[in-house]
Prior knowledge:
Blueprint: E1 14-19, H1 24-38, E2 42-49, H2 63-81, E3 88-93, H3 104-120, E4 124-128, H4 135-151, E5 156-160, H5 164-167, E6 179-185, H6 190-198, H7 201-204, H8 219-225, E7 229-235
Parallel strand pairs: 1-2, 1-4, 2-3, 4-5
Antiparallel strand pairs: 6-7
Helix pairs in contact: 1-2, 1-6, 2-6, 3-4
Amino acid sequence: xxxxxxxxTLTARSILIVAPHxxxxxxxxxxxxxxxxxxxxxxxTLFVTDGGASHRNSATWPRAALAxxxxxxxxxxxxxxxxxxxxxxxxxxxxxxxxxxGSPGWNAARARVVEILADAAPDLVxxxxxxxxxxxxxxxxxxxxxxxxxxxxxxARMEYAIWLDELGAPxxxxxxxxxxxxxFDIADVVETKRAAVAAHLSQTTALIDDDPDGFMLxxxxxxxxxxxxxxxxxxGEAD
Length: 239
């Protein structure tokens, strides 16, 4: 792996963050976003799903209430990262049940993303790794990639992996020559990134305590994703 870069060496001025769920924006690229926002770069954050499926069996947090809670948590996290006054969009697609590619629901979502791209005019897109072992992450990658093609846009793209190291099969990892790794030193803002992750109380604490099968990020996963180096995959061989 190359030495970590100083984030401000990136030349992008308009950046789109693609978060399959509220919390992916912080876990995947919270450090880079914090540093670049403070440097005057403009961000638009796109949340793809409503996040309402993390605790399917909770009686006290039915799906609609949980989705609303996760929306509020996303707003809190964006404020911590320094993106609180910048544009954001919530597609509100059903968590863990996205419409299939080519369906009316998918096509409508893609059309909305095309509109967002026209408004944001990004020269850099931060999106989930294309083969991250979570179906929503893969679908988000395909949705945004299709929208970019439809819009005729070709910004730089960097892909962050959330679950690849923990859950990825060999075929999920980059193939030889497919991608190269780029890393950034975010040591100065690690505590800010961790605070943004912690703002997602429904995902990081026992706030929802009546669903033993509900999802919660464990300490090891949070520690792995909130260290002083933030890494991404880019197309092709390293320069």
